[in-house]
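Hello, quick one for you while I still have it in my head. No rush at all, and the record is pasted right below.
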Amino acid sequence: VAARYGVKNGDRMNLRIESASCGMVIENLLVRADATSKLEVHIDTDEGNAADLDHATKVELLKQ
């Protein structure tokens, strides 16, 4: 799956979250990719709340 998006295990990415009340960029996320990987991002509850993730209008992964 990762190769389809031009990334590989060990690469770094940024996650941009846009919402009406707040937006943020989480930088330097580590890509973990292997034969059983799924396309998903894990952020903790505090980060999700700080970015108002429940009301996000756009979420985007960006290669560094």
Summary: Residues 45-50 form the longest helix (6 residues). Residues 16 and 47 are 12 Å apart (CA to CA). The mean pLDDT is 91. The radius of gyration is 12 Å.
